[in-house]
Amino acid sequence: MTDGMNRRGLLRCGAWAGAGLVWTMSGGVPRSWLLGDASAATEGLTFVQISDTHIGFNKPANPDTKATMSAAVDRIAALSPKPAFLIHTGDITHLSKPEEFDTALEIIKGANAEVHYVPGEHDWLDDGQGFRQRFGQGTKGNGWYSFDAGGVHFIALVNVVNFKAGSLTSLGADQIAWLKDDVSGLSASTPIVVFTHIPMWAVYPKWGWGTADSAEALASLARFGSVTVLNGHIHQVLQKVEGKVTFHTAMSTAYPQPAPGTAAAPGPLKVPADKLRSMLGIREVAYVEGQEALAITDTRLSA
Amino acid sequence: MRLRYAAPLALLALGLLIRLGGGLSAAETKEVQIDNYSFTPGTLTVPVGTTVTWTNHDETPHTVVSADTPRSFKSGGLDTDDKFSVTFSKPGSYSYLCTVHPYMTGKIVVK
User: Fold this and answer.
1) A96 chain-B contacts, CB cut-off 8 A
2) Cβ separation of A165 and B102 shorter than 8 Å?
3) In a designed cystine with A114, which of A85, A127, A239, A302 is the match (CB 3.0 to 4.6 A)?
């Protein structure tokens, strides 16, 4: 399947699987069309989001998370053009164990690309020791940072540390102050990509699927013309548009979770083995300077 | 050593429980189950000296961490079927949460 797979081929497969919608934002109006019709960006910046690999999980919902992560990485390695880099939006591991981090790192090497990480709550069960040791270099606070690539300003936020009883997770005042400062010198026309683990919008607060102080963080980004927020955590694709901000949650490479409110609790959703890979996937994001739009393509591992 | 334990073990095997009088009660044990992202029972009242054991039945890891500062008790990440025990030697009300799913809360009342 991956032999000879180029980007166009992958996109076609995505459309075939029903997952192939390209979303663009223009003047606050979201537009989507089937991939076959899309003049998707073939030059400019392309990067890939991988999420919720949960290395260490081995229950019936997916007894082999190494194999599904490897399948995702094989897909990424076969992309043409090659993505500039990967972002991993957390839950790299299931239990924050050193061997889980090491296995994940070994698998992701196969993508042969730089990877920018943020932690998920599963990567912080040891108070962030293992995560920080491997990925903390050059980051601020509990691991937040920013960088520029292809004319886009990327911001990595950490929202898996400040947990208070009976409340949603939060970014915390320190991180929000840093964010405000980080973007203060940027022109309002700079496209912004924020990536973090837990959704930055209230997907389903009852299950903890939201961030308590996200509105404060997003206030710092209100003057920008294009803000794209990418996250993981809920193991399914959902989108929301709020003014100039688009929110996109990504699929996992490990196991699906129920749609918000459709089960007694969140958690691994058992599906027939031959259906599993149709509920796992990766995401490609493309940006061409001057187009003011990011094209987002979610592709299922079954495609 | 072996002989010293033989009698009580034999009694336990017969389903007998020996209780010492004079205010010295045998240590109690109580269970809290973690199912579907919640603690059951949500509030548990126990006598001083009780050991409470939490068992995680979910496929998602949870933690059991007291809500006070500094923390009176704190588990690591509990995988499926992992257990965590705390012996409560002082009276009081101990609120706790799962730090990775903070809407999961519970309370141990020690009297």
Assistant:
1) 77
2) yes
3) A85
